[in-house]
Automatic annotation (TrEMBL):
Transmembrane segments: none annotated. InterPro entries: MlaC/ttg2D (IPR008869). It comes from Mycoavidus cysteinexigens. It comes from the Bacteria. It holds the Pfam family MlaC. This is Toluene tolerance family protein. The lineage of its organism: Bacteria, Pseudomonadati, Pseudomonadota, Betaproteobacteria, Burkholderiales.
Length: 226
């Protein structure tokens, strides 16, 4: 897990918010959903239907070979994330939002590299949380949206050993598809959390310094246990 508060002095207490955030995200994708996707009116073409469809598909994949995921098989996790999760996420928009005003100061080459490095950062974080998935459950809260809406929030609750965590998805419609670009866990939005940390690091090292830091952290995560 990675937190950028006090660069070079990451403490255990600073790791908890990000771990809780990403762990809850994985609970949503991989937990045993209370609500099922069997409802005829729910399809992947609707925001809530997409969330439920992803949950069902990922859960089915893990159920077929649970040992591969619980033991942290990086190749299987990579395949799962690449095929079932990332196609439904707008990582480029998330990266732009996380960068905030600093996005405009980055060169096109830096912008492209930032998207790649942030995607890798999230992937390695997901990889570390996948092995912790057991029997978490999901409640999907009632979903309503106005006609022609292009930006919505799907609200859920993750139930983990009696603990209830609110987990919301923010999605944007791009063409005919809905894409996830932000997540809210217990009141903490992913974009806002990383934005504060990235901004502090950029103020100290610049955009090039942020890129170098991300590359080093991703390399360390790639070579170490997840």
């Amino acid at each position: 897990m990675i937190v950028f508060l006090r660069v070079g002095h990451m403490k255990e207490k600073n790791l908890r918010p990000i771990f809780s955030l990403v762990y809850a995200v994985l609970c949503l994708f991989c937990g045993s959903g209370i609500a099922q996707v069997a409802e005829a009116s729910v399809t992947a073409s609707t925001p809530d239907g997409l969330v439920k469809t992803i949950t069902s598909e990922v859960l089915d994949t893990i159920k077929k070979n649970p040992d591969n995921f619980q033991k942290g098989d990086i190749s299987k996790i990579s395949q799962l994330v690449d095929q079932k999760i990332l196609p439904h996420a707008d990582i480029e928009r998330t990266t732009r939002l996380v960068m905030g005003r600093h996005w405009r100061t980055a060169t096109p080459q830096q912008q492209a590299e930032l998207v790649i490095q942030f995607k890798d950062l999230l992937f390695y974080t997901y990889s570390g949380a996948v092995s912790q998935i057991r029997d978490q459950k999901i409640e999907y809260l009632p979903f309503r949206m106005v006609p022609d809406a292009s930006d919505v929030v799907v609200r859920t609750k993750v139930i983990n050993q009696g603990q209830i965590i609110g987990l919301d998805y923010r999605l944007e419609k791009k063409g005919d598809e809905w894409k996830v670009y932000d997540l809210n866990v217990g009141g903490a939005w992913l974009v806002q959390t990383y934005q504060q940390q990235f901004s502090e690091l950029i103020s100290q090292r610049g955009v090039s310094g942020l890129l170098e830091f991300l590359k080093q952290r991703n390399q360390k995560l790639a070579n170490g246990p997840h």
